[in-house]
Design brief:
Low-confidence stretches: none
Distance between the termini: 22 Å
Structural class: alpha+beta
Radius of gyration: 18 Å
Helix content: 25-40%
Largest sheet: 4 strands, antiparallel
Number of helices: 8
Length: about 230
Amino acid sequence: MDTSALIRIEQHAAAVVATEYRHLPSSIVSYYLTPPAVAIALNKQQLTAVLSRNLRYRRQYGLSPRNVSLSTQPSIQQQDYLPKLGVVSWKDCIGMDMLPKALLLPNAQNTTLTCWLNNVSDRMAMVLHAYRVTEETPTFYLFPYLDFSKRSEYRLAVSYGELTHVRCYRRRNDFQTKHTDAIAAWWRNIKDWPPTDVLAHLFVDVVAESDPGQFCIIDVNPNLSAYH
């Protein structure tokens, strides 16, 4: 694994973990496009098992491969989901960025969820290492899947609650240049920013709502390059 990237994760592990959905302040969560439909807490043994299924992480930290098992039997409504483990999603795992409803038949749900947990990429394992450093555990979320194929996505750089930069990183049919100024105005209305160093520097991803000048948050990540 990338040693320098792992060192950065270790140095700023608290900032990484702080951006998990359940840790975010209400002033941010209230602007999320959609809350998770399912949230399953993992314990330390389960997290270690998840990480042990990644070959490079296992070799890096001398782990033996372990079977991932869920201690709960969640009842999940059949629909398409965006799965996310703590602060990472399966976006770089081919065919796993979306969990289709066809795999969530009542008698197969645990098997399907275990399959996802058994397959974390090198990037995912590296970021999840922050949980071992902080001795915390992640939650396994299922967010309702939404099709963004026609919606532009914008990334905000935020430091201590102040917007420092906005750019469109996925330009789609609804792109408008004026959205940059509209996003800045919208962000200024977000109140009660928490005075905490672990949320000092963030990337906030948003999409436009149908109402002019209104936006929704779809993801929050730490801007590690802004920490020194």
